[in-house]
Design brief:
Two copies of one chain form a homodimer. Chain A is mostly helical. In chain A, 54% of the residues lie in helices and 6% in strands. Chain A contains six helices and three strands, in the order E-H-H-E-E-H-H-H-H. A three-stranded antiparallel beta sheet of chain A has the order 1-3-2. In chain A, strand 2 and strand 3 form a beta hairpin. In chain A, helix 5 runs antiparallel to helix 6. Chain A is elongated and about 65 Å long. The C terminus of chain A is likely disordered. Chain A binds a DNA duplex through helix 2.
DNA sequence: CTACGAATTCAAGTCAGCTTGAGGTCAAGC
DNA sequence: GCTTGACCTCAAGCTGACTTGAATTCGTAG
């Protein structure tokens, strides 16, 4: 079994075929041929989809993710650019950790009003002050 | 200075007034009164906005975030529910860490094709196999 | 007391990321 | 060789998260 058809990829990735076609349209993945009409993919595609899922979880848009692999499918970014992205991820990881700790604290702290609990406030205030780091021209935030 | 008007909150949070009004409409924040037409907020609002930003970074929708604070503004979730959310965050943190490590690896590894680099593949394959963990009826991912 | 500037409302528009539906096409099983 | 079922294309629709624009309302400075 050297090629997977779209149903196998859908099965293996958990994504519906419509999404796979959509991703292909955007250039995120590519089919290696057809069997009749059915798209055929190489097994590697599943890995690529994992990578895409990770990128999404990190808040990259699909277009940004597409830009990370060159047309070749290989990640094609400069070394400093890569490190910059890794740095941003590190920051984001710290933020999620803050949120996680705050949530665990709320689960345990008996204070009636968390907003007034100093521990809670301190936890939240650890979140990065990145308000100047607006992304592109008028979009969402985060991720 | 006990109350902030919308301009101060916008300034302090980095969000445009339109977004603050939108959040208010969704019930995420609430103004404490008006000065003429101008909305007035309590300083606490800034903290709440930080919390909202964290929630967004974690991939919660605005409605989900709204549901986390009861009408009172206090987080109103059961303890197990809170721990479950914290667990999901932990999982997500691991995933971002995987991505971060993979990116750092790509930045350093001299292999011509990362997709074939065993180290890279191993890193990616560490990502959770959560394909069955579909969220609500047909939506995004992350973010 | 008038002019100004900033905030307001409400409806409509935008963008990303998919999904849905109508109408058509295969390849495989019987 | 015909039916069937999964896939195809293409256009249109949908949701979430905001933004934009027109018409209006105030408080404050002069």
């Amino acid at each position: 079994m050297k090629v997977l058809d779209i149903a196998d990829v859908a099965e293996g990735s958990g994504l519906p075929p419509s999404t796979l076609r959509y991703y292909e349209e955007l250039g995120l993945i590519s089919s290696i041929g057809r069997h009749g009409l059915r798209r055929q993919y190489e097994p590697e595609t599943l890995m690529k989809l994992s990578l895409i899922a990770l990128g999404k979880a990190a808040g990259y848009s699909l277009v940004e993710i597409a830009g990370m692999f060159g047309k070749t499918g290989e990640p094609e970014l400069s070394r400093p650019d890569l490190h910059a992205r890794a740095d941003r991820l590190e920051h984001q990881i710290r933020e999620l950790t803050v949120l996680k700790n705050a949530i665990r604290h709320v689960a345990e702290c008996p204070a009636p009003s968390h907003m007034e609990c100093p521990t809670f406030r301190r936890l939240i205030s650890l979140a990065g002050k990145r308000q100047l780091a607006r992304r592109n021209t008028g979009r969402r935030g985060s991720r």
